[in-house]
Amino acid sequence: MNLKQTLLIAITISFIVLGSWETYWRSQGYYPTLDDNKDLWAVQRSKVTKATSNDVVLMGSSRVLFDIQLDEWEAETGKRPIQLASAGATPLPLFSDIVNNSDYTGTVVVGVTPGLFFSTTYPMAPPWKRVQTRVNYYQDRTFAQRLNHQISLPFQNNLAFMVSFEEKGYADEINLNGLLKRIRIGNRTGNKMMPPFHEFSNIALDRNTKMKDRTATDTAFANTVKAVWAFYQQDPHPPEKEATMTFFLKDAKKFKDRGGSLVLLRCPSSGRDRMGENMDLPRTELWDDLVTQANVPSYHFEDYDQLNQFICPEDSHLSGPDAQIFTTELTKIMIQDSVLTNSKTN
Amino acid sequence: MLFNSLSFAVFLIIVLALYYAPLFNWANKKRILLLSSYVFYGLWNPPLILLLWISTIVDWTAGNKLAKEENQNKRKFWLLLSMFVNLGFLAFFKYGDFLLENFVMFMDAIGVEFHVQPMDIILPMGISFYTFQTMSYTIDIYKKKIKPANTFLDFALYVTFFPQLVAGPIVRAKDLITQFYEPKKATINQFLFGLFSLTLGLFMKVVLADTLLSETSDTVFDSRNVLSFWDALAGTLAFSGQILFDFAGYSTCAIGIALMLGIILPDNFKYPYASVGFSEFWKRWHISLSTWLRDYLYIPLGGSHNGLIKTYVVLMITMLLGGLWHGAAWTFVVWGALHGTYLILERIQKKYLPFKITPFNGFFLAILTYACINTTWVFFRAKDFVTAKNMVGSLFYINPEGEKVLESFDIIKVFTVITILFLCHWIMRNTSVKSVSEKIPSWLLGVIWAIMFVLIVIAQGTGEQFIYFQF
Predict the structure, then answer these.
(1) Per-residue pLDDT for B431 more than 80?
(2) Measured in whole angstroms, how far is the alpha carbon of residue A273 from the centre of its chain?
(3) Is residue B239 predicted with pLDDT exceeding 90?
(4) In a 3-state reduction of DSSP, which class is residue B403?
(5) pLDDT grade, residue A166 (50/70/90)?
(6) Contact of A208 with A71, CB cutoff 8 Å
(7) Residue B384 three-state SS
(8) If contacts are CB pairs under 8 Å, which of residues 298-337 in chain B contact chain A?
(9) Which end of chain B is more exposed for a tag (fewer CB within 10 A), N or C?
């Protein structure tokens, strides 16, 4: 048995196959990207423990993630906010975690996407579980997991075939499991088939997220994302207004009482999404009542000329350039209202 | 730290570099291995290293006292102290909540209202493995089968040796400590075969267990509904493959890593699904645990020397406790009871209805054995008896109208993997990877090695913990 020769053959074949694999996926339009996973999130969450009263924490769902651009925010205020928003998630468990498990007394901007904010307080419901899983992971993560994350970053940053998604179901998954999932024979379970859901944003190390240019320029591509929203809106659940507001307002009071600043933010939506929201989740019943009861500075995009002019390419999120303008204008308004300060000038 | 993680790859490279660097003598190399083992364990939960230290110090002291002490009462004291500490750890950390829950249920049953909050005790990784390992050391010295380790360093390394610390194989002192007495260095072929074994183990874990089988198994066993026959069957078969590839994968990695350091660990799995009968299954599945239970439980309780009925009772007790070793739940006890029953029935058959095993009937008997073992996996995997009952009902076609939760491709995938698994076990049952690898051409082995490596990389894996860590 000549294992030296065997190893040499194995290394050569592996190198050729993996090189070809990488080249193939790049030729298909894939490129190295970071995964918005619980490790990336936990690194940002850990920053809250050292944050001062001058810091800003952003939370909410994907609208806050896409629409608030950290560079523009920092340019206007002199402080880079901590981005903790999670796609498809309610901010309630995270806000509760920050209020009850930290001493943070800075500013918290809570994004209110009505369909998610008022959706549930049930721990196993996806909008809750998605973010609660991250909160738990942050609390329980081991040193080995932290190390794994750091070591994985160069691979994620340099290899297109390392594209991965924490949440299953993305059509762009090209790991072995994702490729096997593309094979379907009939529909034995009779479950409704979700349209292919393509990743339409890129995320940076500090979780600054931007919509991919293609989403804004390629209508067909944007329509694939709209089709996914339509799929999820097939069986809309009525809002759980009372339970969600009670839960949130209790934490809001506690946070304000200890000197924290809370801000509510409603980011833009357009087209079919906005129509559905206006019908099923009317502003007067939900947002306005929340603002009244929370009694904190609140910003609804409809109320400001600078903020209500945007069209979301896939109805729910702003394109990269629009998000930059939105962030700049929003921070200007907030500074004007003395909700935020510009630490560069003050 | 998990073998299937990037941090472990970096860790191993550093350990190997230090181990083979011509800078240290053998004692210092052992210190490096010991320190590395603590880092390996501590990166998961540093405070729980304390338990390892306590276990090490208690058994080291007990072992030395037992070796010197002639007074039988004092010897018994030292043995009992070791047992008390090790089993006490297990009882508290692993069975604390289970015992409490059952106590509350018992009090309720006799009409006494008793409320208590669960203790939510964290289960130290690998506690079942290292406590059994250290107990075997003390018991063997008590029985004067072995001498104490030459040095504290040798003993501490025996308890903590990172390749097998958290999920075995459970190695006996005579097999491992003595290897630490002389400088060890892997030959180039040993080193490379160790690397091959590590790749094979990771392939079993990352590709076969986690990528091809775990999702099907989870979908089926997490369902609260009554399932159709095909879903229940595919889920059960998927779990049978998942647990084998997960655990045998870990053992193969452990053996490979140790071999890269020039240390030989015993085989823990020998193609168990090709077993013809249940006693053979336990000679092939988790061998280090089954031999441990045989030597330190079954034989001390009387073994097969005290009449038929008592033998069966002892066998059943051993299997019940073996079941409980796997987890603090009654479902594991039922799993052990089923295996105990199978073993007893097999003994009865061998005594009253003996027949010759031929290659032809052997193949069908192996299928029958595998089918029976699959029934036991239902109780092993199900999180409660309701799920287990529903699953067994579906498997025996009592629920023809059960829910379909798997897509056709999932079922085809599981049946394909399991058929290949079974045939591989049958073909390999009288040989080993090492002897096969010696017989096939180098280029072919290289191609197989590359295929496994490429698939590991493409699968990426999600860093799933090994199933046996929870035991």
Answers:
(1) yes
(2) 18
(3) yes
(4) strand
(5) confident
(6) yes
(7) coil
(8) none
(9) C
Give B60-68 contacts, CB < 8 A, sequence gap 24+. Answer: B60/B148, B60/B149, B60/B152, B60/B155, B60/B156, B62/B138, B62/B141, B63/B137, B63/B138, B63/B141, B63/B148, B63/B149, B63/B155, B64/B148, B66/B138, B66/B141, B66/B142, B66/B148, B67/B141, B67/B147, B67/B148
Q: Does B12 touch chain A (CB under 8 A)?
A: no
Task: Find the residue in A nearest to B443 (Cα).
Answer: A6
Q: Which two tokens stand for residue B97?
A: 């909540």
Q: Which residue(s) pair with A263 in the sheet?
A: A109
Q: What is the pLDDT of residue A346?
A: 53
Q: Give dist(CA A317, CA A272) in Å, integer.
A: 13
> For B137-158, what is each residue's pLDDT tens digit?
999 999 999 999 999 999 999 9
Q: Which of B115, B286, B305, B326 is catalytic?
A: B326
**Sheet of strand A82-83, all strands in order from the earlier edge strand to the far edge:** A82-83, A56-59, A107-111, A261-266, A298-300
Mean pLDDT of A3-28: 96
Closest chain A residue by Cα to residue B45: A142
* Of the candidates B167, B266, B248, B168, the residue with the CA atom closest to the CA atom of residue B208: B248
Query: In this structure, are residues B194 and B260 in contact, taking their beta carbons and an 8 Å threshold?
Result: yes
Query: Where in chain A are the domains?
Result: 38-336
B43 touches chain A (CB under 8 A): yes
Residue A344's pLDDT band (cuts 50, 70, 90)? low
Which CATH number describes the domain made up of A38-336? 3.40.50.1110
Lowest mean pLDDT among A124-128, B28-32, B83-87, B89-93: B89-93
Nearest to B388 by CA among B344, B327, B340, B331: B331
Strand locations in chain A (E):
56-59, 82-83, 107-111, 201-203, 209-211, 261-266, 298-300
Has B425 been annotated as catalytic? no
Distances B130 to A254, B124, B133, B466 between C-alpha atoms, Å: 47, 11, 5, 16
- What is the DSSP pairing of strand A298-300 with strand A261-266? parallel
Helix (H) or strand (E) holding A23: helix A3-27
Query: Distance between CA A81 and CA A103 in Å, rounded?
Result: 17
**Mean pLDDT estimate for chain A:** 92
